[in-house]
Each structure stands twice: as C-alpha cells, then as structure tokens.
Amino acid sequence: MTDTITAAPATTSVWGPDVAAGAARFLQPLVVNLTAMSVDGKQAHWHVRGPSFIAVHEFLDVYVDHVREWADLVAERVVALGLPVDGRTGTVAADTTTPALRDGFQSVPDTIAQVVAQIDATLEILHTGIEALEEIDAASQDVLVEIERGLVKDRWFLHAHIATA
Ligand SMILES: [Fe+2]
C-alpha cells in the first residue's frame, strides 16, 4: 500500500535548487536577449525600406512571433524549475548583449545586417548554454537546442535577401 500524500511539495521543482539555479544562469540571459529582439524586430519591421521591402517587412513579423515564443519557452522553463525570471524592460535594456539598432529608416541590407548581428549575439549565448547545460540539465539544454535551430533558420531567411549567390 502506498503512502497518502498529506502535504504539498516544498518546492515546485522536482530537481532541486542546484539544478534550477544552475540552469537559470544560462536561461535568464536568453529571456533578456529574446525580449530585446522582439522589440527591435518590430522597430526593424516598421523602418525597413527599399527593394524586397514587402518580403523583409512581412518576414520580420514572423521573426518577432518566433522570438516572442522562444522568450516564453525559456522563461517558463525557469519558472517550472521553481525560480523567477526577470523580463522587465529595465533589466532587458541593461543586460541585453544585442547591438543597438540605428534609429530612423533603414535600407534592406542595413536592416538585415543589424538584425543578423542581434541574432549572432544571441547565438553566442545559446552555444555557451548548450555546452554548459550538458552537465546540468538535459531538458533545459533541449530548449536551447530547439531555439538555436529556429534562430539559425530565421538568420538564413533574412540573409538570403542580401546574399549574392
Ligand atoms: Fe506591421
């Protein structure tokens, strides 16, 4: 006969505080960067001009949807492990490693170069995290692998607009 559960578990994490904190170290920076990219992706969507305008303008909305979904995926992994995340605007502005976009209207090549630079800054965090999480938490690593795959694909879709061959 099994014991009756009489009390709620002490933590919402089944893995304990060490795994949660270890994983959160690599997930929090992604919440920040992906949130920054969702805001800047809209800025790029509004201000792009020139040949291939409609394709780039429309794809940037798809990209914004993706980075918003991925920010949610990462943030909820941390919360599911039992820790809070910090996605406040002040924290995002202070901590993001994405290079700032220039203000005002931008050509298609300049828009893509700036968005790709933000993607590359975030891929660096993803690659560091994927390597480190191998030893800490495979499920969190899996979240990062999924995002890496999608982000590299979006990078390709953007870069293809300005590639010459
Ligand atoms: Fe729009």
Rounded to the nearest angstrom, the distance between the terminal CA atoms is: 69 Å
Radius of gyration equals 19 Å
Q: What is the assigned CATH homologous superfamily?
A: Ferritin, core subunit, four-helix bundle
The pLDDT mean sits at: 93
| Overall CATH class | Mainly Alpha
Trace the largest sheet across and list its strands: 1-2
Fraction of residues in H or I helices: 55-70%
Categorize the overall geometry: elongated
Strand content: under 5%
Work out the number of β strands: 2
Name the descriptors.
Ferritin; 5 helices; mainly alpha; 2 strands; binds fe (ii) ion; 165 residues; single chain
Annotate the secondary structure layout:
Blueprint: H1 17-47, E1 48-49, H2 53-80, H3 89-95, E2 106-107, H4 108-133, H5 138-159
Parallel strand pairs: 1-2
Helix pairs in contact: 1-2, 1-3, 1-4, 2-5, 4-5
Fe (ii) ion (FE2) binds at residues 45, 61.
Description:
Helices cover 69% and strands 2% of the residues. The mean pLDDT is 93. The N and C termini lie far apart (69 Å). It is elongated. It contains five helices and two strands; from the N terminus they run αβααβαα. The chain has 165 residues and is mostly helical. The protein has helices at 17-47, 53-80, 89-95, 108-133, 138-159, and strands at residues 48-49, 106-107. Helix 1 packs antiparallel against helix 2 (53-80) and helix 1 crosses helix 3 (89-95). The chain has a single domain, classed as Ferritin, core subunit, four-helix bundle (Ferritin, Up-down Bundle). Strands 1-2 form a two-stranded parallel sheet.
